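Repro case for the chain-ordering regression, as requested:
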Amino acid sequence: MLTSLVIGVFQGATYGLLAVGLVLVYKGTRVFNFMQGEFGTVAAYATWGLVANAHVPYGFAVLAGLACAVLLGLVVERLVIRPLLDSPKITLLVATVGAALLTISLTTLFGKSEGRVLAPALGSKNFFILGAGVATQQLLLVAVLAGLAVALAYFFSRTDLGLAVLATSQDAFATRVVGISVPAMSRFIWGFAALLGGIAGILQAPIGVFGPGFMTGLFIVPAFTAAVLGGMTSLPGAFLGGELVGVAQSLGIYYLERFHIPGTADLTVFALLLAVLLVRPQGLLGKEA
Amino acid sequence: MPLLELDGLRTGYGAVPVLHGVSLSVEEGETAVMLGLNGAGKTTTMISIAGLLRPWAGRIHFDGKPIHGKDARELVEMGIVLAPEGRHVFPALSVQNNLRLGAWPKRRDAGLVKRTMDRVFEVFPRLLERRDQLAGTLSGGEQQMLAIARGMMASPRLLLVDEASLGLSPKLAQEVFETMRRINRDGTTVVIVEQNAGVLRIASRAFIMLKGQIVYAGAGEELRRGGELRKAYLGTPD
Ligand SMILES: Nc1ncnc2c1ncn2[C@@H]1O[C@H](COP(=O)(O)OP(=O)(O)OP(=O)(O)O)[C@@H](O)[C@H]1O
Ligand SMILES: [Mg+2]
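-- result from build under test --
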Protein backbone atom coordinates (compact mmCIF):
# COMPACT_ATOMS: atom_id res chain seq x y z
CA MET A 1 0.00 0.00 0.00
CA LEU A 2 2.76 2.46 0.96
CA THR A 3 4.57 1.46 -2.18
CA SER A 4 1.51 2.39 -4.24
CA LEU A 5 1.36 5.68 -2.40
CA VAL A 6 4.93 6.52 -3.38
CA ILE A 7 4.33 5.51 -6.98
CA GLY A 8 1.25 7.73 -6.97
CA VAL A 9 3.13 10.75 -5.66
CA PHE A 10 5.70 10.49 -8.45
CA GLN A 11 3.07 9.86 -11.11
CA GLY A 12 1.07 12.81 -9.77
CA ALA A 13 3.96 15.21 -10.30
CA THR A 14 3.53 15.10 -14.07
CA TYR A 15 -0.22 15.63 -13.73
CA GLY A 16 0.41 18.58 -11.43
CA LEU A 17 2.93 20.12 -13.80
CA LEU A 18 0.50 19.89 -16.73
CA ALA A 19 -2.38 21.08 -14.56
CA VAL A 20 -0.46 24.23 -13.64
CA GLY A 21 -0.25 25.13 -17.32
CA LEU A 22 -3.98 24.48 -17.73
CA VAL A 23 -4.76 26.69 -14.75
CA LEU A 24 -2.50 29.46 -16.02
CA VAL A 25 -4.30 29.62 -19.37
CA TYR A 26 -7.68 29.33 -17.70
CA LYS A 27 -6.90 32.09 -15.20
CA GLY A 28 -5.56 34.40 -17.86
CA THR A 29 -7.94 33.75 -20.74
CA ARG A 30 -10.78 31.51 -19.47
CA VAL A 31 -9.95 28.89 -22.08
CA PHE A 32 -9.81 25.13 -21.46
CA ASN A 33 -6.61 24.34 -23.27
CA PHE A 34 -6.49 20.82 -24.69
CA MET A 35 -3.27 21.75 -26.45
CA GLN A 36 -1.28 21.79 -23.20
CA GLY A 37 -0.05 18.19 -23.49
CA GLU A 38 1.20 18.68 -27.03
CA PHE A 39 3.51 21.49 -25.97
CA GLY A 40 5.20 18.74 -23.98
CA THR A 41 5.20 16.18 -26.79
CA VAL A 42 6.75 18.63 -29.24
CA ALA A 43 9.40 19.70 -26.73
CA ALA A 44 10.22 16.03 -26.06
CA TYR A 45 10.55 15.28 -29.78
CA ALA A 46 12.75 18.29 -30.42
CA THR A 47 15.02 17.42 -27.50
CA TRP A 48 15.19 13.76 -28.51
CA GLY A 49 15.94 14.67 -32.14
CA LEU A 50 18.88 16.83 -31.11
CA VAL A 51 20.28 14.44 -28.52
CA ALA A 52 19.83 11.12 -30.34
CA ASN A 53 20.41 12.22 -33.93
CA ALA A 54 22.49 15.36 -33.85
CA HIS A 55 24.43 14.57 -30.65
CA VAL A 56 23.87 18.06 -29.29
CA PRO A 57 24.77 18.41 -25.58
CA TYR A 58 21.77 17.56 -23.41
CA GLY A 59 21.43 21.01 -21.84
CA PHE A 60 21.33 22.76 -25.20
CA ALA A 61 18.85 20.24 -26.54
CA VAL A 62 16.57 20.87 -23.58
CA LEU A 63 16.73 24.62 -24.13
CA ALA A 64 16.00 24.15 -27.84
CA GLY A 65 13.11 21.83 -26.98
CA LEU A 66 11.65 24.41 -24.63
CA ALA A 67 12.11 27.11 -27.25
CA CYS A 68 10.14 24.96 -29.72
CA ALA A 69 7.32 24.61 -27.19
CA VAL A 70 7.20 28.36 -26.54
CA LEU A 71 7.23 29.06 -30.28
CA LEU A 72 4.35 26.63 -30.75
CA GLY A 73 2.47 28.34 -27.92
CA LEU A 74 2.89 31.74 -29.58
CA VAL A 75 1.81 30.37 -32.95
CA VAL A 76 -1.32 28.79 -31.45
CA GLU A 77 -2.12 32.03 -29.64
CA ARG A 78 -1.75 34.10 -32.79
CA LEU A 79 -3.40 31.79 -35.32
CA VAL A 80 -6.05 30.00 -33.26
CA ILE A 81 -6.85 31.90 -30.07
CA ARG A 82 -6.62 35.57 -31.05
CA PRO A 83 -8.94 35.34 -34.09
CA LEU A 84 -11.51 33.51 -31.96
CA LEU A 85 -11.22 35.68 -28.85
CA ASP A 86 -14.78 36.97 -29.13
CA SER A 87 -16.32 33.58 -29.90
CA PRO A 88 -18.03 31.43 -27.28
CA LYS A 89 -15.60 29.63 -24.97
CA ILE A 90 -16.77 26.26 -26.28
CA THR A 91 -15.54 27.25 -29.75
CA LEU A 92 -12.14 28.03 -28.28
CA LEU A 93 -12.09 24.70 -26.45
CA VAL A 94 -12.84 22.82 -29.67
CA ALA A 95 -10.20 24.90 -31.45
CA THR A 96 -7.54 23.81 -28.94
CA VAL A 97 -8.61 20.18 -29.45
CA GLY A 98 -8.20 20.74 -33.18
CA ALA A 99 -4.76 22.25 -32.71
CA ALA A 100 -3.74 19.28 -30.54
CA LEU A 101 -4.96 16.74 -33.12
CA LEU A 102 -3.14 18.60 -35.88
CA THR A 103 0.06 18.61 -33.83
CA ILE A 104 -0.28 14.88 -33.17
CA SER A 105 -0.74 14.23 -36.90
CA LEU A 106 2.30 16.33 -37.74
CA THR A 107 4.52 14.63 -35.16
CA THR A 108 3.36 11.26 -36.50
CA LEU A 109 4.17 12.40 -40.03
CA PHE A 110 7.65 13.69 -39.26
CA GLY A 111 8.61 11.64 -36.22
CA LYS A 112 7.05 8.30 -37.34
CA SER A 113 4.77 6.47 -34.98
CA GLU A 114 7.39 4.21 -33.43
CA GLY A 115 8.35 4.59 -29.78
CA ARG A 116 11.36 6.77 -28.99
CA VAL A 117 13.70 6.76 -26.05
CA LEU A 118 15.09 9.99 -24.63
CA ALA A 119 17.99 9.51 -22.25
CA PRO A 120 17.30 10.61 -18.67
CA ALA A 121 18.83 13.96 -17.73
CA LEU A 122 20.87 12.71 -14.75
CA GLY A 123 21.73 9.12 -15.67
CA SER A 124 19.58 6.07 -15.11
CA LYS A 125 20.19 5.11 -11.51
CA ASN A 126 17.27 3.74 -9.51
CA PHE A 127 16.42 4.15 -5.85
CA PHE A 128 14.03 2.35 -3.63
CA ILE A 129 11.68 4.44 -1.50
CA LEU A 130 9.37 2.36 0.72
CA GLY A 131 9.65 -0.51 -1.70
CA ALA A 132 8.90 1.50 -4.80
CA GLY A 133 11.55 1.67 -7.50
CA VAL A 134 12.14 5.34 -8.32
CA ALA A 135 14.35 6.63 -11.15
CA THR A 136 16.53 9.71 -10.72
CA GLN A 137 14.47 11.26 -13.51
CA GLN A 138 11.38 10.99 -11.32
CA LEU A 139 13.18 12.62 -8.41
CA LEU A 140 14.21 15.39 -10.76
CA LEU A 141 10.62 15.81 -11.91
CA VAL A 142 9.32 16.19 -8.36
CA ALA A 143 12.13 18.60 -7.49
CA VAL A 144 11.39 20.75 -10.54
CA LEU A 145 7.70 20.72 -9.69
CA ALA A 146 8.41 21.86 -6.14
CA GLY A 147 10.76 24.57 -7.38
CA LEU A 148 8.18 25.78 -9.88
CA ALA A 149 5.50 25.85 -7.20
CA VAL A 150 7.57 28.25 -5.13
CA ALA A 151 8.62 30.34 -8.13
CA LEU A 152 5.07 30.66 -9.43
CA ALA A 153 3.67 31.55 -6.02
CA TYR A 154 6.24 34.34 -5.86
CA PHE A 155 5.54 35.40 -9.44
CA PHE A 156 1.81 35.78 -8.95
CA SER A 157 1.89 37.51 -5.60
CA ARG A 158 4.99 39.68 -5.80
CA THR A 159 5.73 40.72 -9.37
CA ASP A 160 3.98 43.32 -11.52
CA LEU A 161 3.82 40.93 -14.47
CA GLY A 162 2.25 38.19 -12.34
CA LEU A 163 -0.34 40.61 -10.98
CA ALA A 164 -1.06 41.77 -14.52
CA VAL A 165 -1.84 38.18 -15.56
CA LEU A 166 -4.33 37.92 -12.70
CA ALA A 167 -5.78 41.32 -13.60
CA THR A 168 -6.42 40.27 -17.19
CA SER A 169 -8.67 37.44 -16.06
CA GLN A 170 -10.59 39.56 -13.55
CA ASP A 171 -11.61 42.62 -15.54
CA ALA A 172 -10.45 43.04 -19.13
CA PHE A 173 -11.76 46.62 -19.32
CA ALA A 174 -9.97 47.67 -16.13
CA THR A 175 -6.82 45.97 -17.46
CA ARG A 176 -6.90 48.29 -20.47
CA VAL A 177 -7.67 51.24 -18.21
CA VAL A 178 -4.43 50.85 -16.26
CA GLY A 179 -2.47 50.66 -19.49
CA ILE A 180 -1.76 46.95 -19.74
CA SER A 181 -1.87 45.61 -23.30
CA VAL A 182 -4.34 42.71 -23.30
CA PRO A 183 -2.94 41.10 -26.50
CA ALA A 184 0.57 41.25 -25.02
CA MET A 185 -0.69 39.52 -21.87
CA SER A 186 -2.40 36.85 -23.97
CA ARG A 187 0.87 36.19 -25.81
CA PHE A 188 2.73 36.03 -22.54
CA ILE A 189 0.25 33.62 -20.96
CA TRP A 190 0.34 31.20 -23.91
CA GLY A 191 4.10 31.36 -24.20
CA PHE A 192 4.49 30.74 -20.47
CA ALA A 193 1.96 27.89 -20.44
CA ALA A 194 3.75 26.31 -23.40
CA LEU A 195 7.04 26.58 -21.50
CA LEU A 196 5.50 24.74 -18.54
CA GLY A 197 4.07 22.10 -20.91
CA GLY A 198 7.49 21.75 -22.50
CA ILE A 199 9.14 21.23 -19.13
CA ALA A 200 6.58 18.54 -18.30
CA GLY A 201 7.16 16.77 -21.61
CA ILE A 202 10.96 16.80 -21.45
CA LEU A 203 10.92 15.53 -17.86
CA GLN A 204 8.31 12.86 -18.49
CA ALA A 205 9.59 11.47 -21.81
CA PRO A 206 12.68 9.65 -20.38
CA ILE A 207 10.54 7.86 -17.78
CA GLY A 208 9.18 5.51 -20.44
CA VAL A 209 9.09 5.15 -24.19
CA PHE A 210 7.33 8.00 -25.93
CA GLY A 211 5.52 8.46 -29.22
CA PRO A 212 3.26 10.95 -31.00
CA GLY A 213 0.63 12.47 -28.72
CA PHE A 214 1.91 10.71 -25.60
CA MET A 215 1.44 13.72 -23.34
CA THR A 216 -2.14 14.17 -24.55
CA GLY A 217 -3.06 10.51 -24.60
CA LEU A 218 -1.70 9.57 -21.19
CA PHE A 219 -1.72 12.76 -19.20
CA ILE A 220 -4.25 15.35 -20.31
CA VAL A 221 -7.34 13.80 -18.71
CA PRO A 222 -5.72 13.22 -15.31
CA ALA A 223 -4.24 16.73 -15.55
CA PHE A 224 -7.65 18.27 -16.20
CA THR A 225 -9.02 16.26 -13.30
CA ALA A 226 -6.22 17.65 -11.16
CA ALA A 227 -6.94 21.22 -12.26
CA VAL A 228 -10.69 20.86 -11.65
CA LEU A 229 -9.98 19.21 -8.31
CA GLY A 230 -7.91 22.23 -7.35
CA GLY A 231 -10.62 24.65 -8.41
CA MET A 232 -9.36 25.43 -11.96
CA THR A 233 -8.02 28.85 -10.94
CA SER A 234 -5.79 27.90 -8.05
CA LEU A 235 -2.14 27.14 -8.72
CA PRO A 236 -1.52 25.44 -5.36
CA GLY A 237 -4.78 23.60 -6.07
CA ALA A 238 -3.35 22.30 -9.32
CA PHE A 239 -0.22 20.95 -7.60
CA LEU A 240 -2.28 19.37 -4.88
CA GLY A 241 -4.83 18.07 -7.39
CA GLY A 242 -2.06 16.43 -9.41
CA GLU A 243 -0.81 14.58 -6.35
CA LEU A 244 -4.32 13.54 -5.35
CA VAL A 245 -5.07 12.16 -8.79
CA GLY A 246 -1.73 10.35 -8.89
CA VAL A 247 -2.24 8.77 -5.50
CA ALA A 248 -5.90 7.91 -6.13
CA GLN A 249 -4.98 6.27 -9.40
CA SER A 250 -2.21 4.26 -7.87
CA LEU A 251 -4.34 3.16 -4.91
CA GLY A 252 -7.16 2.36 -7.32
CA ILE A 253 -4.87 0.00 -9.17
CA TYR A 254 -3.68 -1.51 -5.90
CA TYR A 255 -7.16 -2.23 -4.55
CA LEU A 256 -9.03 -3.03 -7.75
CA GLU A 257 -6.41 -5.14 -9.47
CA ARG A 258 -7.40 -8.29 -7.61
CA PHE A 259 -10.87 -8.06 -9.20
CA HIS A 260 -9.24 -8.22 -12.64
CA ILE A 261 -11.05 -5.11 -13.89
CA PRO A 262 -9.32 -3.77 -16.97
CA GLY A 263 -8.48 -0.04 -17.14
CA THR A 264 -8.59 0.59 -13.41
CA ALA A 265 -6.27 3.58 -13.69
CA ASP A 266 -8.55 5.49 -16.05
CA LEU A 267 -11.58 4.31 -14.13
CA THR A 268 -10.33 5.86 -10.89
CA VAL A 269 -9.52 9.15 -12.59
CA PHE A 270 -12.95 9.41 -14.19
CA ALA A 271 -14.67 8.43 -10.96
CA LEU A 272 -12.72 11.11 -9.13
CA LEU A 273 -13.52 13.73 -11.78
CA LEU A 274 -17.22 12.89 -11.65
CA ALA A 275 -17.26 12.92 -7.87
CA VAL A 276 -15.64 16.37 -7.75
CA LEU A 277 -17.96 17.82 -10.38
CA LEU A 278 -21.01 16.49 -8.56
CA VAL A 279 -20.05 17.17 -4.97
CA ARG A 280 -17.79 20.19 -5.07
CA PRO A 281 -17.75 21.77 -8.54
CA GLN A 282 -15.80 24.77 -7.28
CA GLY A 283 -12.91 22.43 -6.45
CA LEU A 284 -11.01 21.96 -3.23
CA LEU A 285 -9.30 25.35 -3.32
CA GLY A 286 -11.82 27.12 -5.52
CA LYS A 287 -10.45 30.60 -5.21
CA GLU A 288 -8.20 32.86 -7.22
CA ALA A 289 -4.77 32.49 -5.73
CA MET B 1 -2.27 76.04 -25.43
CA PRO B 2 -4.90 73.87 -23.72
CA LEU B 3 -3.77 70.57 -22.21
CA LEU B 4 -6.79 68.77 -23.64
CA GLU B 5 -8.72 69.79 -26.70
CA LEU B 6 -11.62 68.00 -28.39
CA ASP B 7 -12.75 69.22 -31.77
CA GLY B 8 -15.89 67.87 -33.43
CA LEU B 9 -15.61 64.44 -31.80
CA ARG B 10 -18.13 61.92 -33.13
CA THR B 11 -18.45 58.35 -32.05
CA GLY B 12 -20.95 55.71 -30.93
CA TYR B 13 -21.52 52.01 -30.44
CA GLY B 14 -21.95 49.70 -33.43
CA ALA B 15 -23.79 51.86 -35.93
CA VAL B 16 -25.57 53.98 -33.30
CA PRO B 17 -24.11 57.48 -32.98
CA VAL B 18 -23.88 58.90 -29.44
CA LEU B 19 -21.58 61.91 -29.68
CA HIS B 20 -22.54 64.39 -32.40
CA GLY B 21 -19.50 66.62 -32.61
CA VAL B 22 -18.16 67.34 -29.12
CA SER B 23 -15.75 70.25 -28.77
CA LEU B 24 -14.22 71.41 -25.52
CA SER B 25 -10.89 72.42 -24.07
CA VAL B 26 -9.28 72.20 -20.66
CA GLU B 27 -6.22 74.18 -19.58
CA GLU B 28 -3.34 72.65 -17.66
CA GLY B 29 -3.85 72.85 -13.90
CA GLU B 30 -7.63 73.19 -14.07
CA THR B 31 -10.38 71.17 -12.46
CA ALA B 32 -13.11 70.83 -15.07
CA VAL B 33 -16.51 69.33 -14.39
CA MET B 34 -18.92 67.78 -16.85
CA LEU B 35 -22.57 67.62 -15.88
CA GLY B 36 -25.46 66.12 -17.82
CA LEU B 37 -28.47 63.88 -17.59
CA ASN B 38 -28.27 60.09 -17.73
CA GLY B 39 -27.45 58.89 -21.21
CA ALA B 40 -26.16 62.28 -22.38
CA GLY B 41 -22.84 60.78 -23.49
CA LYS B 42 -20.50 61.78 -20.65
CA THR B 43 -19.02 58.31 -20.18
CA THR B 44 -18.73 57.90 -23.95
CA THR B 45 -16.72 61.14 -24.06
CA MET B 46 -14.41 60.02 -21.23
CA ILE B 47 -13.64 56.59 -22.67
CA SER B 48 -13.01 58.14 -26.09
CA ILE B 49 -10.44 60.52 -24.61
CA ALA B 50 -8.84 57.60 -22.74
CA GLY B 51 -8.47 55.56 -25.93
CA LEU B 52 -10.96 52.87 -24.92
CA LEU B 53 -13.42 53.70 -27.70
CA ARG B 54 -12.44 54.68 -31.24
CA PRO B 55 -13.54 58.09 -32.50
CA TRP B 56 -15.42 58.04 -35.82
CA ALA B 57 -14.51 61.60 -36.67
CA GLY B 58 -13.05 64.70 -35.12
CA ARG B 59 -9.78 65.39 -33.35
CA ILE B 60 -8.40 65.06 -29.84
CA HIS B 61 -5.21 66.87 -28.86
CA PHE B 62 -3.23 66.39 -25.68
CA ASP B 63 -0.53 68.91 -24.92
CA GLY B 64 -0.73 69.97 -28.56
CA LYS B 65 -0.21 66.47 -29.95
CA PRO B 66 -2.94 64.58 -31.83
CA ILE B 67 -3.98 61.48 -29.87
CA HIS B 68 -7.18 60.31 -31.56
CA GLY B 69 -6.78 56.67 -32.61
CA LYS B 70 -4.05 55.92 -30.09
CA ASP B 71 -4.82 53.05 -27.74
CA ALA B 72 -5.23 53.23 -23.99
CA ARG B 73 -1.79 51.80 -23.28
CA GLU B 74 -0.02 54.60 -25.16
CA LEU B 75 -2.23 57.25 -23.60
CA VAL B 76 -1.63 56.01 -20.07
CA GLU B 77 2.07 56.26 -20.77
CA MET B 78 1.56 59.84 -22.04
CA GLY B 79 -0.20 60.68 -18.77
CA ILE B 80 -3.94 60.39 -19.49
CA VAL B 81 -5.59 58.13 -16.94
CA LEU B 82 -9.25 57.26 -16.39
CA ALA B 83 -10.97 56.31 -13.14
CA PRO B 84 -13.85 54.52 -14.84
CA GLU B 85 -17.52 54.47 -13.99
CA GLY B 86 -18.94 51.28 -12.51
CA ARG B 87 -16.34 50.10 -10.04
CA HIS B 88 -13.90 48.55 -12.46
CA VAL B 89 -11.45 47.44 -9.79
CA PHE B 90 -9.72 44.03 -9.74
CA PRO B 91 -12.02 42.20 -7.33
CA ALA B 92 -9.79 39.29 -6.37
CA LEU B 93 -6.70 41.41 -5.75
CA SER B 94 -5.95 43.30 -2.54
CA VAL B 95 -6.35 47.06 -2.35
CA GLN B 96 -2.60 47.40 -2.33
CA ASN B 97 -2.16 45.24 -5.43
CA ASN B 98 -4.90 47.19 -7.23
CA LEU B 99 -2.92 50.33 -6.51
CA ARG B 100 0.29 48.67 -7.62
CA LEU B 101 -1.27 47.85 -10.99
CA GLY B 102 -2.38 51.46 -11.26
CA ALA B 103 1.31 52.31 -11.35
CA TRP B 104 1.89 49.96 -14.32
CA PRO B 105 3.39 52.64 -16.62
CA LYS B 106 5.77 53.66 -13.80
CA ARG B 107 6.55 50.13 -12.57
CA ARG B 108 10.28 50.38 -13.27
CA ASP B 109 10.62 53.35 -10.92
CA ALA B 110 10.15 51.65 -7.54
CA GLY B 111 10.95 54.85 -5.62
CA LEU B 112 8.27 56.83 -7.41
CA VAL B 113 5.69 54.05 -6.94
CA LYS B 114 6.42 53.96 -3.21
CA ARG B 115 6.14 57.74 -2.85
CA THR B 116 2.91 57.88 -4.84
CA MET B 117 1.40 55.07 -2.80
CA ASP B 118 2.28 56.86 0.43
CA ARG B 119 0.61 59.99 -0.92
CA VAL B 120 -2.48 58.02 -2.02
CA PHE B 121 -2.84 56.48 1.45
CA GLU B 122 -2.46 59.94 2.96
CA VAL B 123 -5.28 61.26 0.78
CA PHE B 124 -7.45 58.13 1.22
CA PRO B 125 -6.89 56.95 4.82
CA ARG B 126 -9.81 54.54 4.41
CA LEU B 127 -7.85 52.61 1.81
CA LEU B 128 -4.82 52.45 4.09
CA GLU B 129 -6.93 50.72 6.74
CA ARG B 130 -8.05 48.19 4.14
CA ARG B 131 -4.83 47.74 2.19
CA ASP B 132 -4.83 43.92 2.47
CA GLN B 133 -8.56 43.49 1.92
CA LEU B 134 -9.72 42.11 -1.46
CA ALA B 135 -11.10 44.94 -3.58
CA GLY B 136 -14.24 42.94 -4.36
CA THR B 137 -15.19 42.97 -0.68
CA LEU B 138 -15.01 46.78 -0.34
CA SER B 139 -18.25 48.76 -0.14
CA GLY B 140 -19.43 50.52 -3.29
CA GLY B 141 -18.15 53.88 -2.11
CA GLU B 142 -14.79 52.42 -1.14
CA GLN B 143 -14.45 50.81 -4.58
CA GLN B 144 -15.18 54.18 -6.14
CA MET B 145 -12.37 55.69 -4.08
CA LEU B 146 -10.07 52.84 -5.04
CA ALA B 147 -10.74 53.50 -8.72
CA ILE B 148 -9.73 57.14 -8.24
CA ALA B 149 -6.74 56.22 -6.09
CA ARG B 150 -5.62 53.67 -8.69
CA GLY B 151 -5.76 56.46 -11.28
CA MET B 152 -3.51 58.62 -9.09
CA MET B 153 -0.93 55.83 -8.95
CA ALA B 154 0.03 56.41 -12.59
CA SER B 155 1.09 59.97 -11.67
CA PRO B 156 -1.03 61.29 -14.54
CA ARG B 157 -0.95 64.76 -16.04
CA LEU B 158 -4.66 64.45 -16.79
CA LEU B 159 -6.96 62.44 -14.52
CA LEU B 160 -10.44 61.70 -15.86
CA VAL B 161 -12.88 60.74 -13.11
CA ASP B 162 -16.17 59.28 -14.31
CA GLU B 163 -18.68 59.61 -11.45
CA ALA B 164 -16.67 60.66 -8.43
CA SER B 165 -19.54 60.59 -5.94
CA LEU B 166 -21.99 58.01 -7.28
CA GLY B 167 -23.52 56.08 -4.39
CA LEU B 168 -21.74 58.15 -1.75
CA SER B 169 -23.48 59.88 1.13
CA PRO B 170 -23.55 63.68 0.81
CA LYS B 171 -20.89 63.95 3.48
CA LEU B 172 -18.63 61.40 1.82
CA ALA B 173 -19.23 63.04 -1.56
CA GLN B 174 -17.94 66.34 -0.19
CA GLU B 175 -14.97 64.46 1.24
CA VAL B 176 -14.14 63.00 -2.17
CA PHE B 177 -14.51 66.42 -3.84
CA GLU B 178 -12.08 67.78 -1.28
CA THR B 179 -9.72 64.94 -2.18
CA MET B 180 -10.04 65.83 -5.84
CA ARG B 181 -9.05 69.37 -4.95
CA ARG B 182 -5.92 68.08 -3.22
CA ILE B 183 -5.02 65.91 -6.21
CA ASN B 184 -5.41 69.00 -8.39
CA ARG B 185 -3.17 71.01 -6.07
CA ASP B 186 -0.49 68.35 -6.46
CA GLY B 187 -0.34 69.47 -10.08
CA THR B 188 -2.74 67.11 -11.86
CA THR B 189 -5.30 68.48 -14.28
CA VAL B 190 -8.64 66.88 -13.42
CA VAL B 191 -11.83 66.32 -15.40
CA ILE B 192 -14.74 65.07 -13.30
CA VAL B 193 -18.03 63.72 -14.59
CA GLU B 194 -20.73 64.24 -11.98
CA GLN B 195 -24.44 64.16 -11.28
CA ASN B 196 -24.00 66.06 -8.02
CA ALA B 197 -23.85 69.81 -8.69
CA GLY B 198 -22.05 70.21 -5.34
CA VAL B 199 -18.89 69.46 -7.29
CA LEU B 200 -19.04 72.94 -8.83
CA ARG B 201 -17.50 74.25 -5.62
CA ILE B 202 -14.12 72.90 -6.70
CA ALA B 203 -14.49 73.48 -10.46
CA SER B 204 -12.68 76.18 -12.38
CA ARG B 205 -14.52 75.21 -15.55
CA ALA B 206 -17.80 73.48 -16.23
CA PHE B 207 -19.48 71.81 -19.19
CA ILE B 208 -23.02 70.65 -19.62
CA MET B 209 -23.63 67.83 -22.04
CA LEU B 210 -27.00 67.17 -23.59
CA LYS B 211 -27.78 64.45 -26.12
CA GLY B 212 -24.22 64.04 -27.30
CA GLN B 213 -23.33 67.73 -27.50
CA ILE B 214 -21.81 70.35 -25.24
CA VAL B 215 -24.56 72.90 -24.65
CA TYR B 216 -22.77 74.99 -22.06
CA ALA B 217 -19.12 75.75 -21.39
CA GLY B 218 -18.05 78.35 -18.90
CA ALA B 219 -16.60 79.09 -15.51
CA GLY B 220 -17.65 76.79 -12.70
CA GLU B 221 -18.55 79.76 -10.55
CA GLU B 222 -20.97 81.09 -13.16
CA LEU B 223 -22.89 77.84 -13.25
CA ARG B 224 -22.88 77.64 -9.49
CA ARG B 225 -24.67 80.95 -9.21
CA GLY B 226 -26.80 80.61 -12.33
CA GLY B 227 -29.64 78.51 -10.99
CA GLU B 228 -31.60 79.20 -14.17
CA LEU B 229 -28.98 77.62 -16.37
CA ARG B 230 -28.79 74.49 -14.29
CA LYS B 231 -32.53 74.25 -14.20
CA ALA B 232 -32.78 74.55 -17.96
CA TYR B 233 -30.31 71.80 -18.71
CA LEU B 234 -30.24 69.54 -15.73
CA GLY B 235 -33.70 69.97 -14.29
CA THR B 236 -32.30 70.61 -10.82
CA PRO B 237 -32.61 74.03 -9.23
CA ASP B 238 -29.96 73.35 -6.62
N1 LIG C 1 -21.75 49.67 -24.77
C1 LIG C 1 -22.80 50.35 -25.29
N2 LIG C 1 -23.47 49.82 -26.35
C2 LIG C 1 -24.52 50.49 -26.90
N3 LIG C 1 -24.96 51.68 -26.47
C3 LIG C 1 -24.33 52.24 -25.43
C4 LIG C 1 -23.22 51.60 -24.79
N4 LIG C 1 -22.80 52.39 -23.79
C5 LIG C 1 -23.61 53.47 -23.79
N5 LIG C 1 -24.53 53.38 -24.78
C6 LIG C 1 -25.56 54.39 -25.09
O1 LIG C 1 -24.92 55.61 -25.34
C7 LIG C 1 -25.64 56.69 -24.77
C8 LIG C 1 -24.72 57.52 -23.88
O2 LIG C 1 -24.25 56.71 -22.81
P1 LIG C 1 -23.19 57.21 -21.74
O3 LIG C 1 -22.86 56.05 -20.92
O4 LIG C 1 -22.10 57.90 -22.44
O5 LIG C 1 -24.07 58.25 -20.92
P2 LIG C 1 -23.72 59.03 -19.59
O6 LIG C 1 -23.88 60.46 -19.88
O7 LIG C 1 -22.41 58.60 -19.05
O8 LIG C 1 -24.90 58.56 -18.63
P3 LIG C 1 -24.91 58.28 -17.06
O9 LIG C 1 -25.03 59.58 -16.39
O10 LIG C 1 -26.12 57.45 -16.86
O11 LIG C 1 -23.64 57.56 -16.72
C9 LIG C 1 -26.81 56.07 -24.01
O12 LIG C 1 -27.96 56.21 -24.82
C10 LIG C 1 -26.44 54.62 -23.90
O13 LIG C 1 -27.58 53.81 -23.96
MG1 LIG D 1 -21.83 57.60 -17.37
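Ordering looks correct now. The radius of gyration of chain A is 19 Å.
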